[in-house]
Design brief:
By secondary structure, the chain is mainly alpha-helical. It has a domain of 62 residues. It has nine helices and three strands, in the order ββααβααααααα. It has a three-stranded mixed sheet. Helix 3 crosses helix 6 and helix 6 runs antiparallel to helix 7. The longest helix is centred in the C-terminal third of the chain and has 60 residues. It is flat, with a radius of gyration of 26 Å.
Length: 230
């Protein structure tokens, strides 16, 4: 049977943390590490390979790992049939509600992820994002990056720079304002496209429903005529 790997990680704050299987499965780095290790001999049944990575994981304290573990627990429970790529495809700037004039960015985030990220301090979230990126935990990286993007889209240039811990000189501030303006225009354009797409879809569905109703009415009329002829 395929070998099952159990990892213990030494974090930056010198904690030794055993990571759950979901974390290992999502982490390309840990999966590749396991493939390079020698197989233990003499095990007839499924065996566990225990690895202690003694090099400290950069950016990572015990808190950050536990936040990723909680995310993966919720991700598995709430979106059990969704791949990370499918999850990312539904988190798009400006998607919002189809019948809304203004895009509601947070409506594109899974509620459980929005709730989890909103509870974290900015610095804790950023450090955990670095940790997730280091280990290659794709779903966390995708959804947390979308969350951060949603936050800065609601801010002005100076507020966005402060949120991202950036110091702006006058030239950089102007560049940031220009970038935020371009992002706002892109947001509005995508919102219009989403609305137009929804309208076209709605019209198509109404046309199909009308055709089905007409077909059913004709069939009922023909059946009634047949009964009268009999």
């Amino acid at each position: 049977m395929q070998q099952k790997c159990v990892f213990s990680l030494i974090t930056h704050d010198n904690s030794e943390v055993v990571v759950p299987a979901d974390f290992v499965d999502q982490s390309e780095m840990l999966s590749n590490y396991a493939k390079t290790q020698p197989q233990e001999n003499g095990a007839e049944e499924e065996q566990q390979a225990k690895f202690v990575m003694t090099d400290k994981a950069p950016f990572t304290n015990k808190f950050h790992l536990e936040l990723i573990f909680e995310f993966l627990r919720l991700y598995k429970r709430e979106q059990p049939h969704e791949t990370p790529e499918e999850g990312a495809s539904d988190v798009r700037l400006g998607k919002g509600e189809s019948n809304s004039e203004e895009p509601n960015f947070e409506s594109t985030m899974p509620e459980w992820a929005l709730d989890l990220f909103s509870k974290q301090s900015k610095n804790d979230l950023f450090l955990t994002m670095n940790s997730a990126n280091y280990f290659g935990i794709g779903p966390f990286v995708t959804l947390s990056a979308a969350f951060v993007c949603f936050q800065i889209m609601k801010k002005g240039a100076e507020e966005a720079a402060e949120y991202l811990n950036l110091e702006l000189d006058p030239n950089s501030a102007e560049e940031m304002r220009k970038l935020m303006g371009e992002m706002g225009q892109a947001r509005e354009e995508q919102a219009k496209q989403e609305k137009a797409s929804y309208s076209a879809k709605e019209k198509k569905e109404k046309d199909e429903a009308r055709r089905r109703a007409e077909a059913e009415a004709r069939a009922a009329a023909e059946l009634e005529n047949q009964k009268e002829d009999e």
